[in-house]
Design a protein that fits this description.
The structure is a single chain. By secondary structure, this protein is an all-alpha fold. It has one domain: Up-down Bundle (3 helical TM bundles of succinate and fumarate reductases), CATH 1.20.1300. The chain is 77% helix and 0% strand. It is built from 8 helices and no strands. Helix 1 crosses helix 3, helix 1 packs across helix 8 and helix 7 runs antiparallel to helix 8. The longest helix is centred in the first third of the chain and has 32 residues. The termini are far apart. The site of protoporphyrin IX containing FE (HEM) has 19 residues, from helix 1, helix 2, helix 3, helix 5 and helix 6.
Length: 221
């Protein structure tokens, strides 16, 4: 592997692991949406307000945006380098004799996630930061109502569920790929890494999948 490609892969692996960590925190925050509505509204809006006001969290957010951009840009660069070098769309790890479906389709899965993120940022992030949201009883922006209203539409729930399935496959392969790139993958720990990768990917995917389904079936007026 050329040195530059190795550097690109290192950037992908470190930003990818940081994004994996963000997903745990984001899921834990979003699980508040499953509390009884009277409690969830104030809790969720207060939590969103807390995140947007804290300087340390603001810095972490900028690192997050940079990581997202770097992860996507370097994925594109690596894919182009590989196409040029081998005429193949994505070079997968040759140490495993049979590559899995998701390892060959990281580009497609990543593109689905990118489209999801554009919609996600437009509907929640942009509306929260720049929209004119009504306030709740405690004077915080009522993001809770925006999220609940969006998941009362069947098509929106399906869009999210399909994106989460793509995210799950992407995480599963990304986890192993990152552990190899960072030199954490050792024969002795192969099974342990596999188990941790599966548990992480399943927990994140099912956790996110639960939220829109729960809201659609329980909070639909
Ligand atoms: C049911 C699932 C989800 C819900 C209800 C949800 C909800 C939200 C909301 C309400 C915001 C705006 C909060 C704010 O800006 O303060 C947000 C921001 C964000 N979401 Fe999600 N999200 C979900 C899944 C995901 C997934 C799967 C990803 C990544 C693949 C993701 C990535 C992000 C990012 C990167 C931000 C911007 C965070 C920041 O500004 O610091 N979200 N999400």
């Amino acid at each position: 592997m050329k040195q530059t490609t190795l550097i690109y892969k290192l950037v992908m692996a470190t930003t990818g692991l940081f994004l994996c960590f963000f997903l745990i925190i984001h899921l834990l925050g979003n699980l508040q949406l499953l509390s009884p509505p009277e409690l969830a509204r104030e809790q969720f809006n207060w939590y969103s307000h807390l995140l947007s006001g804290n300087i340390l969290i603001k810095i972490i957010s900028y690192v997050l945006y940079l990581s997202l951009i770097a992860h996507a840009v370097y994925a594109l660069i690596i894919t182009r380098v590989n196409i040029k070098a081998q005429g193949s769309k994505y070079v997968y790890d040759k140490r495993s004799k049979v590559s899995s479906w998701n390892s060959r389709n990281m580009g497609i899965l990543g593109t689905i996630i990118l489209i999801f993120l554009i919609i996600h940022f437009k509907d929640y992030w942009y509306v929260y930061k720049f929209g004119n949201l009504p306030l709740d009883a405690k004077g915080n922006k009522d993001l809770y109502t925006i999220v609940i209203t969006s998941f009362q539409q069947g098509w929106y729930v399906i869009l999210y569920e399909l994106s989460f399935i793509a995210l799950g496959f992407h995480l599963l392969h990304g986890f192993f790929s990152a552990s190899r790139t960072l030199g954490l993958y050792h024969r002795k720990y192969a099974v342990a890494i596999r188990v941790v990768g599966w548990i992480y990917s399943l927990a994140i995917t099912l956790g996110f999948m639960l939220i829109p389904i729960y809201i659609y079936f329980n909070l639909n007026s």
